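Now for today's protein.

===
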Amino acid sequence: MHRGLSRISQVWRRSSFFQFVTLAVLIFGSRSVIADWNYVPTGSMKPTILEGDAVFVNRMAYDVRVPFSRISVWHRGDPKRGEVVILHSPEDEKRLVKRVVGLPGDIVAMQAGQLIVNGEPLRYQPAKPETQAVLPQPTQQDHVFVTETLGEHAHAVMLSRQPWRQGDFGSVSVPAGHYFVLGDHRDNSADSRYFGFVARHRIVGQAVGVLVSFDQDRNFVPRWDRFFSTMR
């Protein structure tokens, strides 16, 4: 009787272990293939994304991949101009959040903070007041906030009032299979101006919204108005 109970107990423990392993694989596998989230510790995408935002990532926006790999088994599409993407940096493999401004074959440049794509300067409009209201007053005073339109995406960017700090660059041609990405905080972003073009396989997925947000400068107080907000 005792041996029988002991055997049943062992079988149950093994079963529980395998159930746990299966559940873990499903959970982490789904994060690797279907959807994920990305915590943003820096301000390179302000005012669109703030420090302390946790961004929801649609990993199936462009590809369905083998779990825990970069191998695509179903190519669903390619990043479009103006979309916010999650990528592995060509410099150090860190996961970054940036905006696509140049597609394969595009010629991109920036003069005095104004983007020029394929010879056409982008048009800018003053950003809505609420765009900068989420930022500290000194930051608002030191920057200019404008609305930039890339493809179908109209979004706010911020530029320093000190022209010598702006990250202008001359015309560059985006090679096949690569993308040119920038941060919306144009004077404080490590992006393609520094680490170069981003190969297609390095793009993890599309950032589509903010799940939760906590103010790092105020002891991580929740920013309730940013919870479950959509990305522009």
User: Anything to note?
Assistant: The chain has two domains: 1-33, 37-230.
